[in-house]
């Protein structure tokens, strides 16, 4: 059980995941009140309850109390234990919603973590597993978290609303993080990507590749976009397609962008050509923003810098995302309510 400490108090559902992650790392209990108290459907959502269950699985001795309406949560973190875990994620959010937090916690477990996550691998809300694999894992390696046991593998793809995807994430443990000095992102040397399609024609992926290349070929010749068409049980429960792109610089910086088709039965149909062109433009925008870490992983890099040696690490970032701004504020001023 974590050492008893003064409980931090918050109100509202915003950044609930970030608060629970920082509580687990610091060992300080948190109490969160008025969670959607004025909403027609008050209290915690299914995906938030699923995330709390995941925290309970990877820790030992956590104490979790939720009132009858679900509008008040008390969380006293236990010890980060790790080991082999399986978890069925809520299909209301992507696996990336859970994976982002696991990336923050996994290096500090008592035992190396190996977790199987099932649910939606690619959606329009959370970072996809593809983007986290190509951009977040290199950030971990910069801090000395590497080796053969660092792996993120997509076994099955799952698109919303049905899900049905499965990924395996394993991470070694580290007692000390390596300081970083990332101040020069360097020039782009190559672009790689993955065009995927499930339960639709395989030609969809090829059309996405052609349209994305029509934009990117104007800027750099070294472009290769793979196609991934999964069939049968590996294709999940719902149809869909999408594209994830990553640009690598000469100094080892990875900048990512992605787009996914609208879920079945929601919104207007998206043409593969439009999706490919728009995703290429998003990647160019990410490159224009600059920085040694892309906007998806800014908060991850800042968190590891905070947990490392004081006043040693340095990183150059582009414009901060709203999520990053809050994450940095929480790390610097945890007692502010």
User: Percent helix among the residues?
Assistant: 25-40%
- Reading side by side through the largest sheet, how are the strands ordered? 1-2-5-4
CATH topology of the domain at 182-289: Dihydrodipicolinate Reductase, domain 2
> CATH top level of the domain at 182-289?
Alpha Beta
Low-confidence stretches: none
- Span between N and C termini? 25 Å
Structure commentary:
By secondary structure, the chain is an alpha/beta fold. Among the domains are: 1-80; 182-289, 2-Layer Sandwich (Dihydrodipicolinate Reductase, domain 2), CATH 3.30.360. The chain is built from 8 helices and 16 strands. A 4-stranded mixed β-sheet has the order 1-2-5-4, covered by helices on one side. It has a 4-stranded mixed β-sheet with strand order 7-8-10-9, with helices on one face. A 4-stranded mixed β-sheet has the order 13-12-14-15, sandwiched between helices. Strand 4 (63-66) and strand 5 (73-76) form a beta hairpin. Helix 3 packs parallel to helix 4 (129-142) and helix 7 packs parallel to helix 8 (322-332). The radius of gyration is 20 Å and the shape is globular. The two termini are 25 Å apart.
In brief:
By secondary structure, this protein is of the alpha/beta class.
Key features?
337 residues, four-stranded mixed β-sheet, Dihydrodipicolinate Reductase, domain 2, 8 helices, alpha/beta
List the helices and strands and how they pair.
Layout: E1 8-11, H1 16-26, E2 30-33, H2 46-58, E3 59-60, E4 63-66, E5 73-76, E6 79-80, E7 82-88, H3 95-105, E8 111-119, H4 129-142, E9 151-156, E10 165-171, E11 181-182, E12 188-198, H5 203-216, E13 223-230, E14 240-249, E15 254-260, H6 272-289, H7 298-307, E16 314-315, H8 322-332
Parallel strand pairs: 1-2, 7-8, 11-16, 12-13
Antiparallel strand pairs: 2-5, 3-6, 4-5, 8-10, 9-10, 12-14, 14-15
Helix pairs in contact: 3-4, 5-6, 7-8
Domain RNA 3'-terminal phosphate cyclase insert: 183-287
Subunit structure: Part of the small subunit (SSU) processome, composed of more than 70 proteins and the RNA chaperone small nucleolar RNA (snoRNA) U3. Interacts with BMS1.
Keywords: Nucleus, Ribosome biogenesis
